[in-house]
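Priority: medium. Attachment 1 of 2:
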Protein backbone atom coordinates (compact mmCIF):
# COMPACT_ATOMS: atom_id res chain seq x y z
CA UNK A 1 0.00 0.00 0.00
CA UNK A 2 1.40 3.47 -0.85
CA UNK A 3 1.96 5.81 2.08
CA UNK A 4 -0.75 8.19 0.85
CA UNK A 5 -3.23 5.28 0.62
CA UNK A 6 -2.22 4.13 4.08
CA UNK A 7 -2.73 7.65 5.46
CA UNK A 8 -6.14 8.03 3.87
CA UNK A 9 -7.34 4.62 5.05
CA UNK A 10 -6.06 5.44 8.56
CA UNK A 11 -7.96 8.74 8.40
CA UNK A 12 -11.20 7.12 7.32
CA UNK A 13 -11.00 4.69 10.26
CA UNK A 14 -11.01 7.69 12.60
CA UNK A 15 -14.27 8.92 14.13
CA UNK A 16 -15.33 12.07 12.22
CA UNK A 17 -14.49 14.23 15.27
CA UNK A 18 -10.85 13.15 14.90
CA UNK A 19 -10.41 13.66 11.18
CA UNK A 20 -8.08 16.57 10.31
CA UNK A 21 -9.60 19.71 8.88
CA UNK A 22 -7.57 21.90 6.49
CA UNK A 23 -8.30 25.60 6.12
CA UNK A 24 -5.97 27.48 3.76
CA UNK A 25 -2.47 26.31 4.85
CA UNK A 26 -3.46 25.41 8.39
CA UNK A 27 -4.58 21.90 9.31
CA UNK A 28 -6.56 21.37 12.49
CA UNK A 29 -5.51 17.87 13.64
CA UNK A 30 -9.05 17.20 14.86
CA UNK A 31 -12.34 19.13 15.08
CA UNK A 32 -12.32 20.10 18.77
CA UNK A 33 -11.50 23.77 19.32
CA UNK A 34 -11.15 25.65 22.62
CA UNK A 35 -13.56 28.58 22.27
CA UNK A 36 -12.42 32.12 23.19
CA UNK A 37 -12.96 32.77 26.90
CA UNK A 38 -12.16 36.09 28.59
CA UNK A 39 -10.15 35.56 31.76
CA UNK A 40 -10.44 39.12 33.16
CA UNK A 41 -6.99 39.25 34.70
CA UNK A 42 -4.86 41.13 32.16
CA UNK A 43 -2.78 44.12 33.22
CA UNK A 44 -3.40 47.01 30.82
CA UNK A 45 -3.98 44.43 28.11
CA UNK A 46 -0.94 42.27 28.94
CA UNK A 47 -1.52 38.55 29.46
CA UNK A 48 -0.96 37.38 33.03
CA UNK A 49 0.64 34.18 34.36
CA UNK A 50 -2.93 32.92 34.63
CA UNK A 51 -3.29 33.08 30.85
CA UNK A 52 -0.17 30.96 30.44
CA UNK A 53 -1.53 28.34 32.83
CA UNK A 54 -5.02 28.47 31.29
CA UNK A 55 -3.69 27.91 27.77
CA UNK A 56 -0.90 25.63 28.96
CA UNK A 57 -3.57 23.20 30.12
CA UNK A 58 -5.30 23.07 26.76
CA UNK A 59 -2.06 22.94 24.78
CA UNK A 60 -1.31 19.57 26.46
CA UNK A 61 -4.79 18.20 25.93
CA UNK A 62 -4.92 16.98 22.33
CA UNK A 63 -7.36 19.60 21.06
CA UNK A 64 -7.55 20.37 17.35
CA UNK A 65 -7.21 24.12 17.82
CA UNK A 66 -7.75 26.95 20.27
CA UNK A 67 -8.60 30.62 20.34
CA UNK A 68 -7.28 33.25 22.69
CA UNK A 69 -10.10 35.33 24.18
CA UNK A 70 -11.50 38.63 22.88
CA UNK A 71 -8.40 40.80 22.58
CA UNK A 72 -8.96 44.51 22.21
CA UNK A 73 -7.53 46.30 19.18
CA UNK A 74 -7.65 49.64 21.02
CA UNK A 75 -7.44 50.46 24.72
CA UNK A 76 -11.01 51.77 24.86
CA UNK A 77 -12.14 48.64 23.03
CA UNK A 78 -11.63 46.50 26.14
CA UNK A 79 -14.78 45.28 27.88
CA UNK A 80 -13.20 45.63 31.34
CA UNK A 81 -9.90 46.69 32.87
CA UNK A 82 -8.98 42.98 32.98
CA UNK A 83 -9.37 42.30 29.25
CA UNK A 84 -6.51 41.31 26.97
CA UNK A 85 -5.28 43.87 24.47
CA UNK A 86 -3.11 43.98 21.41
CA UNK A 87 -2.95 47.77 21.06
CA UNK A 88 0.74 47.99 22.04
CA UNK A 89 3.87 46.24 20.84
CA UNK A 90 4.53 45.26 24.46
CA UNK A 91 1.55 42.88 24.32
CA UNK A 92 3.28 40.64 21.79
CA UNK A 93 5.85 38.96 24.03
CA UNK A 94 3.43 37.23 26.41
CA UNK A 95 1.07 36.28 23.60
CA UNK A 96 3.99 34.61 21.84
CA UNK A 97 4.56 32.43 24.91
CA UNK A 98 0.97 31.21 24.52
CA UNK A 99 1.37 30.44 20.81
CA UNK A 100 4.65 28.64 21.61
CA UNK A 101 2.84 26.25 23.98
CA UNK A 102 0.39 25.19 21.27
CA UNK A 103 3.00 25.00 18.53
CA UNK A 104 5.12 22.65 20.64
CA UNK A 105 2.28 20.14 20.19
CA UNK A 106 1.26 20.89 16.61
CA UNK A 107 -1.97 22.67 17.55
CA UNK A 108 -3.05 25.73 15.55
CA UNK A 109 -3.79 28.72 17.75
CA UNK A 110 -5.88 31.74 16.81
CA UNK A 111 -6.67 35.07 18.40
CA UNK A 112 -10.04 36.77 18.54
CA UNK A 113 -9.62 40.45 17.64
CA UNK A 114 -12.27 42.57 19.29
CA UNK A 115 -13.62 45.99 20.11
CA UNK A 116 -16.27 46.19 22.84
CA UNK A 117 -18.01 49.32 21.44
CA UNK A 118 -21.01 50.35 23.55
CA UNK A 119 -20.42 47.42 25.95
CA UNK A 120 -16.94 48.64 26.94
CA UNK A 121 -15.98 50.16 30.28
CA UNK A 122 -17.72 47.55 32.43
CA UNK A 123 -16.89 46.10 35.84
CA UNK A 124 -15.60 42.52 35.96
CA UNK A 125 -18.28 39.80 35.86
CA UNK A 126 -17.36 38.76 39.40
CA UNK A 127 -17.97 42.38 40.48
CA UNK A 128 -21.40 42.57 38.86
CA UNK A 129 -20.50 43.63 35.28
CA UNK A 130 -22.19 47.01 35.76
CA UNK A 131 -21.04 50.00 33.70
CA UNK A 132 -17.99 51.56 35.35
CA UNK A 133 -19.89 54.86 35.40
CA UNK A 134 -21.88 53.27 38.24
CA UNK A 135 -19.36 50.84 39.70
CA UNK A 136 -16.22 52.98 39.75
CA UNK A 137 -16.79 56.25 37.85
CA UNK A 138 -13.20 57.45 38.14
CA UNK A 139 -12.00 54.48 36.09
CA UNK A 140 -14.70 54.67 33.38
CA UNK A 141 -14.00 55.68 29.79
CA UNK A 142 -16.05 57.00 26.89
CA UNK A 143 -18.00 54.50 24.78
CA UNK A 144 -18.17 54.61 21.00
CA UNK A 145 -20.73 52.90 18.78
CA UNK A 146 -22.39 53.24 15.37
CA UNK A 147 -25.25 55.24 16.94
CA UNK A 148 -25.80 57.06 20.23
CA UNK A 149 -28.02 54.29 21.61
CA UNK A 150 -27.17 52.79 25.00
CA UNK A 151 -26.77 49.02 25.26
CA UNK A 152 -29.67 48.82 27.68
CA UNK A 153 -31.37 50.89 30.37
CA UNK A 154 -28.89 52.24 32.88
CA UNK A 155 -25.93 52.03 30.54
CA UNK A 156 -24.13 55.17 29.38
CA UNK A 157 -25.06 56.55 25.97
CA UNK A 158 -22.17 55.92 23.57
CA UNK A 159 -20.92 58.58 21.20
CA UNK A 160 -21.75 57.88 17.54
CA UNK A 161 -18.48 57.32 15.70
CA UNK A 162 -17.36 59.78 13.07
CA UNK A 163 -16.45 58.41 9.66
CA UNK A 164 -12.81 59.18 10.50
CA UNK A 165 -13.10 57.05 13.65
CA UNK A 166 -14.63 54.22 11.65
CA UNK A 167 -11.61 54.19 9.34
CA UNK A 168 -9.18 54.49 12.26
CA UNK A 169 -10.85 51.53 13.97
CA UNK A 170 -10.56 49.40 10.83
CA UNK A 171 -6.88 50.35 10.76
CA UNK A 172 -6.58 49.34 14.42
CA UNK A 173 -7.77 45.84 13.47
CA UNK A 174 -5.08 45.73 10.78
CA UNK A 175 -2.32 46.92 13.13
CA UNK A 176 -3.48 44.38 15.70
CA UNK A 177 -3.33 41.61 13.09
CA UNK A 178 0.30 42.55 12.35
CA UNK A 179 1.11 42.13 16.05
CA UNK A 180 -0.83 38.85 16.14
CA UNK A 181 1.29 37.54 13.30
CA UNK A 182 4.46 38.61 15.14
CA UNK A 183 3.18 36.75 18.20
CA UNK A 184 2.94 33.58 16.09
CA UNK A 185 -0.82 33.14 15.75
CA UNK A 186 -1.89 30.77 12.97
CA UNK A 187 -5.30 32.26 12.36
CA UNK A 188 -7.41 35.27 13.27
CA UNK A 189 -11.04 35.50 14.29
CA UNK A 190 -12.98 38.76 14.04
CA UNK A 191 -15.28 39.12 17.04
CA UNK A 192 -18.50 39.99 15.25
CA UNK A 193 -20.79 38.70 18.03
CA UNK A 194 -22.33 39.39 21.44
CA UNK A 195 -23.27 43.03 20.87
CA UNK A 196 -19.71 44.34 20.69
CA UNK A 197 -18.65 46.92 18.13
CA UNK A 198 -18.60 44.85 14.91
CA UNK A 199 -21.90 43.15 15.79
CA UNK A 200 -23.43 46.49 16.76
CA UNK A 201 -22.79 47.82 13.25
CA UNK A 202 -24.67 44.86 11.75
CA UNK A 203 -27.70 44.85 14.07
CA UNK A 204 -30.58 47.21 13.31
CA UNK A 205 -31.16 47.46 17.08
CA UNK A 206 -27.88 49.33 17.59
CA UNK A 207 -27.10 50.82 14.18
CA UNK A 208 -29.52 53.54 13.13
CA UNK A 209 -27.05 55.77 11.29
CA UNK A 210 -28.25 57.66 8.26
CA UNK A 211 -24.99 57.48 6.29
CA UNK A 212 -23.50 54.66 4.23
CA UNK A 213 -22.27 52.96 7.44
CA UNK A 214 -25.69 52.13 8.81
CA UNK A 215 -29.43 52.09 9.01
CA UNK A 216 -31.27 50.76 5.97
CA UNK A 217 -30.72 49.10 3.55
CA UNK A 218 -28.92 46.17 5.11
CA UNK A 219 -25.92 46.64 2.77
CA UNK A 220 -25.06 49.69 4.86
CA UNK A 221 -25.02 47.68 8.06
CA UNK A 222 -22.88 45.02 6.38
CA UNK A 223 -20.30 47.61 5.42
CA UNK A 224 -18.28 47.78 8.65
CA UNK A 225 -18.00 44.00 9.24
CA UNK A 226 -17.14 43.44 5.59
CA UNK A 227 -14.58 46.27 5.48
CA UNK A 228 -12.87 44.90 8.60
CA UNK A 229 -12.73 41.47 6.93
CA UNK A 230 -11.43 42.86 3.63
CA UNK A 231 -8.79 44.95 5.38
CA UNK A 232 -7.59 41.97 7.40
CA UNK A 233 -7.61 39.66 4.41
CA UNK A 234 -5.38 42.00 2.45
CA UNK A 235 -3.03 42.50 5.44
CA UNK A 236 -2.48 38.87 6.46
CA UNK A 237 -0.76 36.13 4.44
CA UNK A 238 -2.87 34.24 1.91
CA UNK A 239 -1.92 31.07 3.81
CA UNK A 240 -3.61 32.28 7.01
CA UNK A 241 -7.26 31.47 7.77
CA UNK A 242 -9.62 34.30 8.72
CA UNK A 243 -12.63 33.43 10.89
CA UNK A 244 -15.61 35.50 11.90
CA UNK A 245 -17.79 34.98 14.97
CA UNK A 246 -21.41 35.98 14.46
CA UNK A 247 -24.31 36.51 16.74
CA UNK A 248 -26.41 34.54 14.29
CA UNK A 249 -29.63 35.90 15.78
CA UNK A 250 -30.24 38.81 18.15
CA UNK A 251 -33.15 36.91 19.69
CA UNK A 252 -35.28 40.04 20.02
CA UNK A 253 -38.00 41.51 17.84
CA UNK A 254 -36.64 43.71 15.06
CA UNK A 255 -33.15 42.26 15.43
CA UNK A 256 -30.95 40.04 13.31
CA UNK A 257 -32.52 36.80 12.10
CA UNK A 258 -30.69 33.81 10.68
CA UNK A 259 -31.59 34.87 7.11
CA UNK A 260 -29.68 38.13 7.70
CA UNK A 261 -26.69 36.19 8.98
CA UNK A 262 -26.67 34.04 5.84
CA UNK A 263 -26.47 37.25 3.77
CA UNK A 264 -23.64 38.48 6.01
CA UNK A 265 -21.83 35.14 5.69
CA UNK A 266 -22.00 35.30 1.89
CA UNK A 267 -20.56 38.82 1.93
CA UNK A 268 -17.84 37.77 4.36
CA UNK A 269 -16.96 34.82 2.16
CA UNK A 270 -16.46 37.18 -0.78
CA UNK A 271 -14.31 39.37 1.49
CA UNK A 272 -11.98 36.43 2.20
CA UNK A 273 -13.41 34.96 5.42
CA UNK A 274 -12.88 31.20 5.53
CA UNK A 275 -15.12 30.03 8.36
CA UNK A 276 -18.04 31.42 10.36
CA UNK A 277 -18.20 30.63 14.08
CA UNK A 278 -21.90 30.74 14.92
CA UNK A 279 -22.77 32.14 18.33
CA UNK A 280 -25.79 34.32 19.20
CA UNK A 281 -27.29 37.08 21.34
CA UNK A 282 -25.86 39.88 23.41
CA UNK A 283 -27.06 42.95 21.55
CA UNK A 284 -28.94 44.32 24.57
CA UNK A 285 -27.34 42.48 27.43
CA UNK A 286 -25.00 39.68 28.32
CA UNK A 287 -24.65 37.25 25.40
CA UNK A 288 -27.54 34.86 25.16
CA UNK A 289 -29.99 37.12 27.04
CA UNK A 290 -33.51 37.18 25.61
CA UNK A 291 -32.93 33.86 23.89
CA UNK A 292 -34.56 30.59 24.79
CA UNK A 293 -32.97 28.89 27.79
CA UNK A 294 -29.83 27.19 26.47
CA UNK A 295 -30.21 23.45 25.88
CA UNK A 296 -27.50 21.05 24.66
CA UNK A 297 -26.36 22.08 21.18
CA UNK A 298 -28.84 24.99 21.08
CA UNK A 299 -26.79 27.00 18.56
CA UNK A 300 -25.89 24.12 16.24
CA UNK A 301 -28.85 24.81 13.87
CA UNK A 302 -27.30 28.22 13.09
CA UNK A 303 -23.95 26.70 12.14
CA UNK A 304 -25.81 24.17 10.03
CA UNK A 305 -27.91 26.75 8.22
CA UNK A 306 -25.02 29.15 7.52
CA UNK A 307 -22.92 26.25 6.23
CA UNK A 308 -25.73 25.06 3.94
CA UNK A 309 -27.06 28.37 2.68
CA UNK A 310 -23.86 30.40 2.43
CA UNK A 311 -21.69 27.42 1.45
CA UNK A 312 -18.95 28.30 3.90
CA UNK A 313 -17.35 26.15 6.59
CA UNK A 314 -18.71 26.75 10.09
CA UNK A 315 -17.86 26.15 13.73
CA UNK A 316 -20.68 25.19 16.09
CA UNK A 317 -20.65 26.25 19.74
CA UNK A 318 -22.94 26.26 22.76
CA UNK A 319 -23.36 23.46 25.29
CA UNK A 320 -21.48 20.89 23.28
CA UNK A 321 -20.37 18.69 26.15
CA UNK A 322 -20.46 15.04 25.08
CA UNK A 323 -18.20 13.05 22.75
CA UNK A 324 -21.11 11.42 20.93
CA UNK A 325 -22.89 14.76 20.49
CA UNK A 326 -19.76 16.46 19.11
CA UNK A 327 -19.00 13.54 16.80
CA UNK A 328 -22.54 13.50 15.42
CA UNK A 329 -22.41 17.22 14.61
CA UNK A 330 -19.33 16.63 12.46
CA UNK A 331 -20.52 13.29 11.03
CA UNK A 332 -23.83 14.80 9.92
CA UNK A 333 -22.09 17.72 8.25
CA UNK A 334 -23.81 20.26 10.50
CA UNK A 335 -20.51 22.06 11.14
CA UNK A 336 -16.82 21.58 10.35
CA UNK A 337 -15.47 22.32 13.82
CA UNK A 338 -16.96 22.31 17.32
CA UNK A 339 -15.94 24.97 19.82
CA UNK A 340 -16.14 24.19 23.51
CA UNK A 341 -15.86 26.45 26.53
CA UNK A 342 -17.28 25.50 29.90
CA UNK A 343 -16.88 21.77 29.32
CA UNK A 344 -13.20 22.43 28.60
CA UNK A 345 -12.88 24.23 31.93
CA UNK A 346 -14.49 21.24 33.56
CA UNK A 347 -12.67 18.57 31.56
CA UNK A 348 -9.60 19.89 29.79
CA UNK A 349 -8.74 16.35 28.62
CA UNK A 350 -12.06 16.13 26.77
CA UNK A 351 -10.34 15.24 23.48
CA UNK A 352 -8.51 12.24 24.95
CA UNK A 353 -11.63 11.05 26.76
CA UNK A 354 -13.69 11.51 23.59
CA UNK A 355 -11.15 9.50 21.58
CA UNK A 356 -11.58 6.59 24.00
CA UNK A 357 -15.37 6.84 24.04
CA UNK A 358 -15.59 7.01 20.24
CA UNK A 359 -13.34 3.96 19.72
CA UNK A 360 -10.53 5.95 18.15
CA UNK A 361 -8.03 3.28 17.01
CA UNK A 362 -5.26 4.90 19.07
CA UNK A 363 -6.67 7.33 21.67
CA UNK A 364 -3.30 7.96 23.36
CA UNK A 365 -1.97 9.35 20.08
CA UNK A 366 -4.04 12.54 20.48
CA UNK A 367 -1.90 13.50 23.49
CA UNK A 368 1.65 14.93 23.47
CA UNK A 369 4.44 12.34 23.27
CA UNK A 370 5.44 12.27 26.92
CA UNK A 371 1.87 11.74 28.14
CA UNK A 372 1.20 9.28 25.34
CA UNK A 373 4.25 7.18 26.36
CA UNK A 374 3.05 6.70 29.94
CA UNK A 375 -0.64 6.38 29.31
CA UNK A 376 -0.06 3.59 26.80
CA UNK A 377 1.64 1.63 29.55
CA UNK A 378 -1.20 1.86 32.05
C1 LIG B 1 -15.67 32.68 30.98
C2 LIG B 1 -16.17 32.88 29.59
C3 LIG B 1 -15.59 33.86 28.81
C4 LIG B 1 -16.02 34.05 27.48
N1 LIG B 1 -15.36 34.95 26.68
C5 LIG B 1 -15.66 35.02 25.38
C6 LIG B 1 -14.86 35.77 24.49
O1 LIG B 1 -13.82 36.32 24.86
N2 LIG B 1 -15.26 35.85 23.19
C7 LIG B 1 -16.37 35.19 22.74
O2 LIG B 1 -16.70 35.30 21.56
N3 LIG B 1 -17.11 34.43 23.55
C8 LIG B 1 -16.77 34.30 24.84
N4 LIG B 1 -17.48 33.46 25.65
C9 LIG B 1 -18.51 32.60 25.05
C10 LIG B 1 -17.88 31.26 24.68
O3 LIG B 1 -16.89 31.42 23.67
C11 LIG B 1 -18.93 30.27 24.17
O4 LIG B 1 -19.50 30.77 23.00
C12 LIG B 1 -20.02 30.02 25.21
O5 LIG B 1 -19.45 29.82 26.49
C13 LIG B 1 -20.86 28.81 24.84
O6 LIG B 1 -20.05 27.65 24.75
P1 LIG B 1 -19.99 26.57 25.95
O7 LIG B 1 -21.41 26.14 26.22
O8 LIG B 1 -19.14 25.45 25.39
O9 LIG B 1 -19.36 27.22 27.14
C14 LIG B 1 -17.07 33.26 26.97
C15 LIG B 1 -17.67 32.29 27.78
C16 LIG B 1 -17.21 32.09 29.06
C17 LIG B 1 -17.84 30.99 29.90
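Attachment 2 of 2:
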Amino acid sequence: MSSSHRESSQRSSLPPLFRPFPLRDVTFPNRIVVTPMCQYCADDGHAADWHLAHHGRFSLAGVGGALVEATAVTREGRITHGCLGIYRDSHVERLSQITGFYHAHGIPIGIQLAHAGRKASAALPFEGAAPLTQHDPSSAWELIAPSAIPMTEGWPTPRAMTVGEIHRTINAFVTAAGRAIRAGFDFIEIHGAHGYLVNSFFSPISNQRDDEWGGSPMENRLRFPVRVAEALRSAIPASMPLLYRTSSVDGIEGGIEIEDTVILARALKSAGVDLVDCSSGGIIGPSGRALAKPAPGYLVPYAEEVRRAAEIPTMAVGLITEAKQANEIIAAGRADLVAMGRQMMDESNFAYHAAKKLSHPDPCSVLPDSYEFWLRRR
